[in-house]
Write a structure and sequence with these properties.
The complex is a heterodimer of chains A (388) and B (303). With 388 residues, chain A is an alpha/beta fold. In chain A, 39% of the residues lie in helices and 18% in strands. The relative contact order of chain B is 0.12.
Chain lengths: 388, 303
């Protein structure tokens, strides 16, 4: 049984090769049919195939949607942004209709021609979205909306109130030696942006203005900071549940986290608190994107309308500890769980939103017209060097 | 005339003719019999290896993420030049070796006791005890160790009860060493078990007759005879550890990546299959060398 492990690895590799080859074959047809956006939602096709974060297609809101529209939902859960990109590329991209891409994947999908623009006029609730997430740079390019924003949240500093005192106010708590061997941060190359954000405040001489647009020197500086941090790390967490376990068992007392971990630990009566440190924080914002070769576009439009409605927004936000994009969701959240609107920042002022630097795929083009920034593959390489 | 009895009759059914043809041509019979497994072996095993080697010589366009099908040694160059990958390869091989030695040290006295000393009923019970963990999921066993080794886990609780302070080995290379040694132990015990079983009692009696004491008998008679068994077991423990990436993910800490983790990250995360393929050839080469040594020690006869 276990003997076959190496062979499994080889098999997976072969499979990945085929995936890679097929992605290669389809890349030439980058069909961005901007001119022919649909002007109305037609007759539904009867089914909808989604690539989603685990639990984004919960029966709580999928069942009523199916009953209402007659579209049967088939969801394929992906474990990482990169897996989502891979899934959307394989098989010519017509296998799935939509993907719930995070900001670090969405630009890759747009550039690869895997997704197509959507008509926001067909999504009435879109007008009620937080203004910053109506046309954010991670899903809107040249005025074209490649998808409809869904939920968002910050990457917070989570700590155990018993072991960590005084309460931290700065990210320096996870870069300094005071909690050596008790720190946990995500196992994700995009974590470099957290270090870059910290450096942009503490070392202004580096000239970092955007944590996702780093020159080689800036990336090296961030990598150096993270290499210094490595001996302090108990574990780089891959799943949210990993970090929850680390905090419960006392292995970690401080770390970078999502509000999800905080709410789960709170529910388990663990003495934890979370803050957005004074340097600000990175964050994620998810978008439902429509595949360039979607076979069920009408069901897809019905779906984004459904998940954008205040009630479903609230259900999803309270289930996963995220912040809804629809400003009308607050009232519904209070109905589900008293105080949740406040906890998940659904009523937070614009200044809260602006303190968050949302995940974006690092690309070679810097905002200043130069193209000497380090792209995602460089980030990935650096990340391996840091953690390996 | 009797000759007509041997002439093939018009009414002979096709089945009989086919079987007759096969009977007359043993090579055809053998070929047909083997063609299924052979095709499987060539297509699944060898073709996969060839694809692995070939793709390790390709590269990925960093802008589009597409494969570039032109030959380059860039991937191997990166492997040699970047310290991290050497560290990871050495860590993987080092821990695989440590696990193998640990398992051999644990398995030898256990198997000896079970085969030579334990009464028949206990022997059966021990055999089952060795095999039972294999019936439960690999993941469950690794997760259990995570709970045992955690800071507020069972191990520290037990040590604390004894008044010995606490150990902080959860999520570290030590944890990986312990978990790997536990998980692959049965694969070491079984070959040694059968190797000890095959040593005739008379050899040991003869050794005693010639005046050798226990230790001398073990060193000069028993050990050389069970060495192939140890080598056979070590093939399992070494190769299984070498190829694993789940245990490092689950119980490893910061800086516990194995070759398998880098391969996984490059395939699933960075979509850099050529580099993953290049790195995947490293354990293949290591294992090839290891198998050559093991064959010298007679491991293949003991399997």
């Amino acid at each position: 049984m276990r003997l076959a492990k190496i062979d499994w690895a080889l098999g997976a590799l072969l499979l990945a090769m085929m995936v890679g080859a097929s992605a290669c074959g389809s890349s030439s047809s980058s069909s961005s049919s901007a001119s022919n956006l649909p002007s109305k939602i037609g007759k539904t096709e009867g089914q909808l195939n989604l690539v989603a974060w685990e639990g984004y297609a919960e029966s709580k809101w999928v069942k009523p949607y199916e009953a209402k529209t007659g579209c049967k939902v088939h969801a394929k859960y992906a474990g990482s942004s990169d897996e989502m990109v891979t899934l959307m590329r394989q098989g010519g991209g017509s296998q799935y209709d939509m993907v719930s891409a995070s900001g670090d994947a969405s630009l890759r999908l747009i550039r690869g021609g895997e997704v197509q623009p959507m008509n926001v006029d067909l999504v009435p609730e879109w007008k009620n979205f937080v203004p910053q997430l109506q046309s954010p740079p991670h899903n809107t390019v040249d005025g074209k909306h490649y998808g409809i924003s869904l939920q968002w949240g910050p990457n917070t500093l989570l700590y155990n109130t018993k072991s960590v005192s005084p309460a931290p106010t700065s990210w320096s708590a996870i870069y300094g030696p005071q909690y050596k061997g008790e720190v946990s941060v995500p196992a994700n190359p995009i974590q470099i942006a957290d270090a870059a954000l910290y450096l942009s405040k503490t070392k202004p001489s580096l000239g970092i203005s955007d944590p996702y647009e780093l020159t080689e020197d800036q990336l090296d500086a961030a990598a150096d900071l993270l290499k210094q941090q490595r001996p302090l790390i108990k574990k780089y967490w891959a799943l949210a549940s990993d970090e929850i376990e680390l905090f419960k068992n006392g292995d970690a007392v401080i770390g970078a986290a999502w509000p999800y971990q905080y709410s789960q630990l709170k529910k388990a009566n663990e003495p934890v608190e979370q803050i957005i440190p004074k340097e600000g924080a990175t964050g994620w914002a998810d978008t439902w994107m429509l595949s360039a070769h979607a076979k069920d576009p009408n069901c897809a439009y019905e779906w984004v309308n459904w998940v954008s409605s205040p009630k479903v927004q609230a259900e999803q936000a309270t289930t996963y500890g995220e912040t809804p994009v629809n400003t009308k969701a607050c009232g519904e959240m209070e109905k589900i769980e008293k105080g949740s609107c406040e906890v998940y920042h659904a009523n937070a002022p614009a200044s809260y939103f602006d303190s968050i630097k949302f995940w974006r795929t690092p690309v070679a083009e810097c905002g200043n017209g130069q193209s000497d920034c380090m792209d995602y593959s460089k980030w990935q390489q650096k990340w391996t060097e840091i953690t390996g | 005339m009797s000759a007509t009895g041997f002439a093939p009759q018009r009414s002979t059914p096709a089945r009989t003719r086919v079987s007759a043809a096969l009977f007359r041509r043993p090579w055809l019979r053998g070929g047909l019999l083997l063609s299924g497994p052979l095709a499987w072996f060539v297509l699944i095993y060898l073709a996969a290896l060839v694809v692995l080697f070939v793709s390790s010589l390709w590269s990925v366009d960093s802008f589009t993420g597409n494969l570039v099908h032109s030959w380059t040694l860039k991937n191997f160059e990166t492997l040699v030049k970047v310290d991290t990958y050497r560290t990871i390869a050495l860590r993987t091989i080092g821990i695989a070796a440590a696990v193998t030695v640990t398992d051999a040290i644990l398995a030898l006295p256990f198997a000896f006791f079970a085969v030579r000393i334990a009464p028949k009923r206990l022997q059966g019970a021990l055999f089952v005890a060795v095999l039972i963990p294999l019936w439960s999921s690999y993941l469950v066993r690794v997760y259990v160790w995570r709970l045992i080794l955690a800071k507020d886990g069972v191990l520290n609780w037990a040590i604390g009860q004894l008044g010995l302070g606490s150990l902080n080995i959860g999520y570290s290379n030590w944890a990986m060493w312990i978990v790997f040694s536990y998980i692959w132990l049965p694969f070491m015990i079984l070959p040694i078990w059968s190797a000890i079983e095959r040593v005739p009692d008379s050899y040991i009696e003869a050794s005693a007759d010639l005046g050798a004491r226990g230790w001398r008998t073990f060193r000069s008679v028993l050990f050389p005879l069970i060495l192939p068994g140890i080598a056979a077991g070590s093939i399992f423990t070494f190769s299984l550890t070498l190829g694993d990436y789940i245990t490092p993910t689950l119980v490893g800490g910061a800086g516990s990546d194995f070759i398998g983790n880098v391969v996984y990250q490059n395939v699933g995360v960075a979509s850099n299959v050529p580099f993953a393929a290049a790195f995947a050839t490293v354990p293949l080469i290591v294992m090839g060398v290891y198998l050559l040594i093991a064959r010298r020690l007679g491991a293949f006869e003991a399997l």
